Structures are given as C-alpha cells and as structure tokens.
Amino acid sequence: MSSGCWRKMAESPDISKLIFFFSYVVVLTLLMCIGPTKSQAQAGTLADDEVDALREIAEQLNKKDWNFSDPCSNVPTFSTPRTDQYNNTLVCNCSFTGNVCHIQSMYLTGQELDGVLPPALVKLTYLKQVILGQNYLSGSIPREWTSTKLEFLVLSVNNLSGPIPGYLGSITTLRALALESNLFSGTVPPELGKLVNLEMLYLRANNLTGELPLALTNLTKLKVLQIGSNNFTGRIPDYFQSWKELRMLEMQASGLEGPLPSSLSALNNMKDLRISDLSGESSDFPNLSNMTGMQKLMLRSCNITGAIPELISNMTSLSVLDLSFNRLEGSIPNLADIMQLATIYLTSNLLTGLPDWIKNRDSR
C-alpha cells in the first residue's frame, strides 16, 4: 500500500517509542515496523459511523480534545506535547474507494485518561493497533473487544483490575498483548493459549497468582515473555522447548520456585535472559552453550551452585552479566575478549581470586 494513502490526526512517531516502557526495544521495533510511516495528507473523510464511534470512545475514556470535524486530518488536536512519554495519534487508512477513510491505529500514550476501556472500540472494524499505555484507566477489559481483529493491544501502566479475562483468547489475531504494571489479580487464564499468533506477552508487575497454565506451550511464536514482579507459585515450568523463538525472557521476582529447568538450553535465539529471586531447590549452572547471541544475562539469587562455565566467554555480544547472590565457587572465567561487557555483578558468591583481566579493565 502506498504511503500516500495514510492520513493522521497528529504526526506518527517512531513505532519503537510508542512502547517506550518495554525493556526489549529491539524485538518490539522489528515486530511493530508494519505501522505507517510519515506521509503527506490525502483527501478523504472518515466514515460517519466511525465518527460516531469516536464520540462514544472519547466519552468512555474521558478524552476531551479530539477534533471530530476531521479526525483524520494532520492538524494537531492534542493538549499535551508529543514526546517519548506522550502520544495522541489516530492513523487512518484512506486507500478505499470514494475517498472514505477508516481508523487503523489508535495511540493514546500518557494522555492522563481516567475513564474506562471503551466497549465502543468494537465499532472501529478496521482497527488493528490500540496503544493506551501510561494512563489512569480503570475497570476491566470489555468482553465486546473479542469481536475485534486487533493485532497489537497495549494497556500497560494503568489501574486496570480484576482477573485477566479468559475471553481475550478469542482475539486470535493478536501478535502483542501488554498488560504489565496494572492491578490484575488471579491466575493466568489457560485461554491465552489460544493466541497462537502471539509474539509478545507482557504480564509483569501485577498481582497474579497460581501456576502458569500448560496451555501457554501453544504459543510457539513467542519472542518476548515478561512475567516478573508477580506472586506466582510452583516451579518454573520445564517446557521452554515450546518457545524456541524466544529472544527475551524476564522472570524477575515472579514468585516461582527453582530449580532452573533443563529446557532453558533449547532457547538458542535468546538475547536477554533475566531470572531472579528463586526459592526452592538449587541447580547447577544452566546449559547456555547455544546462546552465543546473548546480550544481557541475569541469573540473580537463583540458588545456582558450582562453577561459572567458560562458555560465557563465547557470548561476544554480552553487555550485562549479573550472577550475584548465588553459591557459585571457583575462579572467574576469562571474559576479557567480550568488548561490549560493561556491567558485571558477582556479589555474594563463593568465588576466589580477582583475575588480572578484571584489574586491567578497571585501570582503563
């Protein structure tokens, strides 16, 4: 589709900045680059039924600054400046016959919205991306949304509460689901296992409990999974071989118990691995020999015993290494050739000696 077919309420920023609060920007940028680029305006009018739907949505969100006379214009109608933390953008597809436009993307980040998630969103039948992060929205996720064909749904950093509804599993077009930093409670519904196209799942920083459902093994396209800062119970599940596409795995202070499962070794594409604060059984250092593209490795307070393996020296792109608060012993392997390595935490272990390569690096 030609770039001239797109018109916006406000200039659309770099896609990676729309999701600034996610920690794994590289993967997200690759997956969300399907969004529209900056383009010049083209004549076209938003369909009347979508204008009516926008009025309903504005009332439900408690949004007061939309321009309903021409919602797809390039004229800014926002009351807050557009920065990394603020975005007020509607993206319209105006490639249809008859100069008719349809809303395809809604980015409302940091707009201080204090309403509820709008059931009327279902009336925007061409909508693919909804970014409502960094607001004060409360309540639950409307059941009406199950009729949408959303691909990206970002609700991070709000005041949403109650259980994560199982009916979210009906939105099988979803590629990204971000519910982090809310007040969701209860267990992760097994119905999320129906989201077989999901590539990014963010559930961290909620009040989630219970064990992770086995149905999540159906998410074979997952590239990013964040579930830390919750109150899960039970062992870390030993089915990582189902998630061979994972690039980023975050389980910091998730409530899950050790030991570290052997199936971690199946994650050959891993670039960012963060697990911390595991109770339960101890474990040997996991087999990470195939993860040569690792950039950040955190296995903090995971009750790991034994020696630090020499294989870490093969992670030539490593920039952060945190193995603190374990029971590692022996000497520190030579990592002098990892030029990107800027941060090393080995505190509170049973390691012996300070190797020359660390002394030489500190003297630079």
From TrEMBL:
Q: Which Pfam family name is an example for this entry?
A: LRR_14
Its membrane topology, per UniProt?
Answer: Single-pass type I membrane protein
Q: Does the keyword Protease apply?
A: no
Database matches in InterPro entries: Leu-rich_rpt, LRR_dom_sf, LRR_R13L4/SHOC2-like, LRR_Rcpt-Like_S/T_Kinase
SUPFAM superfamilies according to UniProt = L domain-like (SSF52058)
The Disease resistance R13L4/SHOC-2-like LRR domain sits at 164-348
Q: Please state what the protein is called.
A: Disease resistance R13L4/SHOC-2-like LRR domain-containing protein
- Print the organism lineage: Eukaryota, Viridiplantae, Streptophyta, Embryophyta, Tracheophyta
